[in-house]
Structure formats: C-alpha cells, structure tokens
Amino acid sequence: MADQTQDQAPARKPIETHRDGRLSAAIWANDGGEHGPIYNATLSYSYKNKDGEWRDTSSIPGNELLKAAHLSEKAYTSIQLLRDQDRAKYVQQQQSLSLNNDGRERPRER
C-alpha cells in the first residue's frame, strides 16, 4: 500500500449506493456549513474495456435508460429521507436549546 502524502486527500466514498445490473446511483454528502449537508447523486455505468478491465462511465447506453430512471427515483427518495432526518435533528437541537436545565421553556427575548 502506497503512503499518502500531505497533498493527497483520502478517497471519498458515497454514503449510499443503489445498483441495477451494470448501473449504479451513488449518493454523496458535501459540507453545507451551517445549513447542514448538501446531497448529490451520480449515475454510472460499468463496462469492460478492450483489456478486460472494469471501468465506469457517466455515459448511459440507450437500452439502459429506463433502469437509470428508476435508479434516479430511488436516489431522489433516499435524499429526501436524509433531508427529513437532518430537519428532524435540527428541530430537536433547537428545542433542546430553548429549554432551561430544569425542562421549562426559556422566556423569549424581544
């Protein structure tokens, strides 16, 4: 295993992947700062090159487009669930900040 230099960042991995045959939809979380994570999805198609090595491409063959659409829908649903979970955590944090240590609600400042 090669040593990583300080200039090389460790390889990022998707937080979730959906597959259908040679197609995959990967979901990525990027830092959105105070607004929480920003989620993105990438579609890829795996194939063997002329040397027999597996490669990935973002070019989807026409006969695989329906599968790609279904994977896109799954990725969309997963991202919506992740956003819902993030919102629930945010609301819970805000509620816990608005309570005193004794469990009573703090008076709101005007």
Describe the structure.
With 110 residues, the protein is α+β, with helices and mostly antiparallel strands. The protein has one domain (16-97). Helices cover 30% and strands 25% of the residues. It has one helix at 65-97; strands spanning 16-20, 23-30, 38-48, 54-57. The protein has a four-stranded antiparallel beta sheet, with helices on one face. The N and C termini lie far apart (60 Å). The relative contact order is 0.14.
The tally of beta strands, per DSSP, is: 4
Q: What characteristic shape results from the CA principal axes?
A: elongated
Rounded mean pLDDT is 87
What letter string, H or E per element, gives the SSE order?
A: EEEEH
Point out poorly predicted stretches.
Answer: none
Largest sheet: 4 strands, antiparallel
What is the total domain count?
Answer: 1
Tell me the strand order in the biggest sheet: 1-2-3-4
- Overall structural class, as computed from helix and strand content, comes to alpha+beta
Beta-strand content estimate: 25-35%
> Helix coverage percent of residues?
25-40%
Instruction: Give the N-terminus to C-terminus distance in angstroms.
Output: 60 Å
Number of helices: 1
Radius of gyration: 21 Å
List the helices and strands and how they pair.
Elements: E1 16-20, E2 23-30, E3 38-48, E4 54-57, H1 65-97
Highlighted features:
alpha+beta, 110 residues
Summarize the structure.
This protein is 30% helix and 25% strand.
